[in-house]
Amino acid sequence: MELTNKNFPALKNDRLLRAALGKEVDKVPVWVMRQAGRYLPEFQAVRAKHDFFTVCRTPELACEVTLQPLRRYPHLDASIIFSDILVIPQALGMTVEMHPGLGPVFPNPLKDPSEIDNLQEENAVSRLDYVGKAITLTRHKIEGKVPLIGFTGAPFTLMGYMIEGGGSKTMAKTKEWLEKYSNEVHKLLAMLSRVIVDYLVMQVESGAQLLQVFESSADHLPRELFKEFSAPYLKTIRSEVKRKLEAKQLEQVPMTVFAKGGGHSLDVQAGLGYETLGLDWTVDPIEARKIVGDNITLQGNLDPQDLYKKPEEIRSMTINMVRKFGKHRYIANLGHGITPQTPLESMTVFTEAVHEAV
Ligand SMILES: Cc1c2[nH]c(c1CCC(=O)O)Cc1[nH]c(c(CCC(=O)O)c1C)Cc1[nH]c(c(CCC(=O)O)c1C)Cc1[nH]c(c(C)c1CCC(=O)O)C2
Fold first, then answer.
1. What is the pTM of this model?
2. Domain at 15-356, CATH from 3.20.20.210, 3.30.930.10, 3.40.1440.60, 3.50.50.60
3. Measured by CB atoms within 10 angstroms of the end CB, which terminus of the chain is less buried, N or C?
4. What ligand 1 atom has the least distance to the C-alpha of 167?
5. Is residue 161 in contact with ligand 1, taking CB distance under 6 Å?
6. What is the pLDDT of residues 147-180, one digit of tens each?
7. Which residues are catalytic?
């Protein structure tokens, strides 16, 4: 049988989707940001043979790496497609390399706003069709065990990488742009938003069952700048994805926004139209619930560093966290991505403890 986006196996575990939509669940669903990655020896084995972006661009490899954590950790209630947020700048014509030990490097970052016009918005999403192919293949190979999450970087986070040329502790250049070139910045953020919307719709068409938007660099923005340079675009992305899915007669999917360091504007985030808000570990679950109200799902938020503690301690911290969030409208996760040296057993303890709790 041909593996198309029309004949997927039926979903057997829908806890994640139920929690995102505010329906009752038998157990709290759990998954982990960056669950398919550097801490897994089986991932390292794939990476020893293939360059990072080759894995992203080869559906069979991306599918294999997506499935790896599910084989090792049977308690996981979701998978997230293996890719990276930086495939969008690549599709716009920028070169991005992944340097081991250093992270992403753009040899030619945006030097000034006149270079925005060189970015190739037209057909950008068709240059990302390999992500769609990886999603469709993975939906089949998962055999309905858990839902498949699609994702993107948010406009501000992507712009930051495009200007800085890689990760940055200070975001000095980006902050200079916000100050000096705010009109051009808004033009770039709007362009990125258009590409992101079509990219997310393509992911749903290919088989993604929930979408997460990573605003990983929100920690550089104070509330007022978050309201100007992040929130409006996040809101447009949510409403435009909904509108375009409807226009294409595709099924609606729940969406999550994760603004790392955005604890200062949870009230703003609650108004963006997303079903789920991701929280980093600096946010108190009970305070967050008070701010956002009862009609939104919360996701998070154990400090990834806590996975370096002893199993018994991880277990009790996890159970404590789940009790604070409660069983309703909650998806257990870490407060950011899992880090490379995390002991493999910690993930077992964490995922098991979530299902034991409540
Ligand atoms: C900011 C960001 C990036 N990429 C991503 C974000 C947002 C999430 C976050 O805030 O952590 C998102 C991402 N990147 C990757 C995934 C795969 C799916 C998963 O979560 O399991 C996802 C969802 C694979 C990856 N992306 C990367 C790796 C490791 C690269 C390698 O194998 O050499 C993986 C597995 C590399 C990457 N990619 C990026 C950085 C900064 C780095 C280097 C640091 C790091 O490794 O964590 C950009």
1. 0.97
2. 3.20.20.210
3. N
4. 41
5. no
6. 999 999 999 999 999 999 999 999 999 999 999 9
7. 34, 38, 47, 84, 161
